[in-house]
Amino acid sequence: MEGAVFTADEWELRPDPEGDRPWINPALRTPQGRRDRLHYLGRQARRRARKAAARQRTVHGVVPRVLRGERRVRAWVVGVEGAKARADLNLALATVEEADRAASRAGRSVLKRREKRELAQKLQLEAGKQLAVAQTTKSRAKRIVAGRGAFAYGALAVADTVAYGVADVWGFLGALVANLAGASWLGRDVEVSEEELEKLEQIEAGIPQEFSGGMTPRMFEQMIRQALTEDLKVTLSALRVDPYAWGFEVHVWLERMTPEKVSAGLDLLEACLPGVRTSSILLQQSAESRNYCVIRVPGKDPWQAVPELPYRAPHSISTPAIHTAQIGADMAARSLALPMMRTNVNVVGKSRSGKSTLLRAILDVLTATEDQIVIGIDLGSAGSGFGGLRRAMHVVATTPSEARRALWWALDVGKGRPALFDRLGMGENWVTLAARPGIKIIVDEFPALVRESRKGYLDPDTNKRVPWDLDGLLAELAITCAKSDVTILIAGQGVTKEKIKDNTWVVELPVQVLAACDKDDVVQILGDGVLAQGWRPDRLLPQMGDQLNDASVVYVTAGSTYCEPVPYRGCYAPPEELVRRGREREEAGLVDIDEESARLSSIKLKDLMEASRQAFATGDGGAEQDDVPRLIALIRRVYEELGDPGGLQLEEIAAGLAPLDPDRWDLDVFDAEGYGQAEREQARTAALKAAIRAVLAPAGASWTTDSYRRPGEQKTTKGYCLRHLKKLTGEAWNAS
Q: Is the pTM of this model over 0.70?
């Protein structure tokens, strides 16, 4: 290094007993120093103003002092003479009243009438004496009180009149202010109770009476220390307050106790800190020590430090670096990035809790990788949870049949890859490269997948309902395929049995992400006692209308990296930006499966991708694509062409279907050796009856025969009624 090096001792302003030290710090002569000085003076002025405003609510406020001063002046004007005159007058009036009552009793009495008259006469004489004394005392007191009143109030009246004559209204107002200031000075002394004295001492010491994001750490430390020790009865070993732009972070070291008492009293702590939003204080049990915890007291905008979802170019991330790709941040802007290399993830949150925002942030990372095949399964919302990134995903299955094919393909690859480890020199785990990618299965709306899996389909060979077993395939993937880097991410509204039946394996996945959810979900995933340690997703509020509340705020547990209850918020990107990124990554080309893994399954990835693209292009996703809607719609057309009769026989329906779908319902299709016209019609009728039953069975519906009346006939006929058909098609069955 070149040049002179100055140490701190050479430029620092040290004590100067000889008087050569400059009066003004040189740092204050700079523009930044002047601005900082003005900011400091403004902050001090605001503190003094808050202190003065808080003092007005005590006995030393301006109004109480003015009232006390006026009472003291009035007491001096009245004096001892006025008080004695008032006492003599009250005594005389009481004596007169007693004498009147004695005279009344003497006039009505029969027994001892003489004694009662003598007593009444004595009382009347005594009353006369008392009245004479009271008149004399009152006359004397009037002269003295008038003199004092003229001195006390007359001077003020004269001063106010002179001020009004000199300066008009403004002079009168100034004189009035002076009068109030004098009365306030006279009322400065007061005797206070212990409670009033304690409150006054807190105000004089600068202890705030209400939480404010702009208060100093020292003030807030005094406020939180008093709340913890006096109200929550917590024994503190040490306490430190760190201020941030989002609020305050309080580091608490307890004395021979755990933070359970603090966790149980969070509601009381909020009540002791006026100005704190309800259910906003968060507790974090530290992993360093059991008696060490962190309390977060957020202000009005605690998530201002969370950035937008970072841009990532196509093929810019490798699987070993996924754990560094940011998808969210905490209040202090510390990054959240999930470990997802050969790791399964479970995301839980009730409706409107922001799961989709976090899911899209994760998908933004996965679709930007150079070595991952991304497959999405959504049987509850037709893939809408994936947003604009759907174009950058290889497969998006929105029907049970597509989902089962995709899961079978992933399971074949995941189970077959361990046989390739030694041949490819990979050791004990699949080494993910751009030439040999991993596979990520993203499942949204998991409870809907469980319901569809239980509903099943009708096997045409056995005529029995067969479950899809999609959740069973996912469980097998989670258990057997992690070492092959074929992993899953499950997102659902809860993990209770009412929502996911017996799929308890989701709570055992190594990475758990909890958004706003029920207390039962928290306990079932993390175990008993976690609420006292600060894992409180149940205190989070989901989005309600335009109010975001705690949407996309999550708690994450993932090994030693994320083992403390710290809330994070997912990074957000506008929908149009996600659409742009999806198209950009689609145009850059999606990752293809390696040849060794492709030979492990009879199902081809290209076939899955082509079927997904066709479903997305035609908008046919979201419902099972078979003859269910088509057959019922064709039968409805048959009724329309015949003028919507009240009902039809099965033979008439089959005859009407022949011209609409000849490849399936024409008589020639049912021709066989030895069959005549009647046999073919009978075979077609039987096939139609079986087809109607088969297409309605997955939805739990049926179309049975009922009585109807043909036009022009009085008797009823048994057949397939129009009103039942309208119920199946969603029409108003009683409409004309």
A: no
